[in-house]
Amino acid sequence: MTAPLLRFRKPLPLIPDLGVAAAIALVVFFLLLGLLVVFVEKVDLKIVLGLLFILLGSTVGLAAIGEAGLSLIAMAVVGAVVVDQMLQHFTGV
User: Fold this and answer.
1) Residues ≥6 apart with Cβ < 8 Å to 29
2) Cβ of 22: how many Cβ atoms within 10 Å?
3) Number of folded domains in the chain?
4) pTM value?
5) CB proximity list for 7: less than 8 A, separation 6 or greater
6) Which end of the chain is least crowded, N or C, by CB within 10 Å?
7) Distance CA 77, CA 93 (A)
8) Are residues 63 and 78 in contact, defined by beta-carbon separation less than 8 angstroms?
């Protein structure tokens, strides 16, 4: 009896449906933005830039390995941090 040929299967993404990933990203964006606006008075610009580059790098890395849903959620986190910084800048807080 011979063993069948073992074929390597491409791993499935963690969130295969982009619609579900977009809904999760929207929820993450608004929750994080609300938490930042309500509970965090001031975020230093160096911390914001560090988070921005780290999250953008992870977004590109996740998209490169086929995790488009997780990269969409990481982009939502980046957007929330940037919008919070813009709100702080425009309101002068």
Assistant:
1) 76, 77, 79, 80
2) 15
3) 1
4) 0.77
5) none
6) N
7) 21
8) no
Q: Is the pLDDT of residue 30 over 90?
A: yes
Q: Is residue 86 part of a domain?
A: yes
* Contact by Cβ (8 Å): 88, 42: yes
CB 67 within 8 A of CB 24: no
Confidence class for position 31, pLDDT limits 50, 70, 90 = very high
Residue 50 is assigned to a structural domain of this protein: yes
Residue 1: per-residue pLDDT: 56
Q: What average pLDDT does the segment 3-29 reach?
A: 80
Let me know if residue 32 belongs to a domain: yes
Q: What is the pLDDT of residue 42?
A: 79
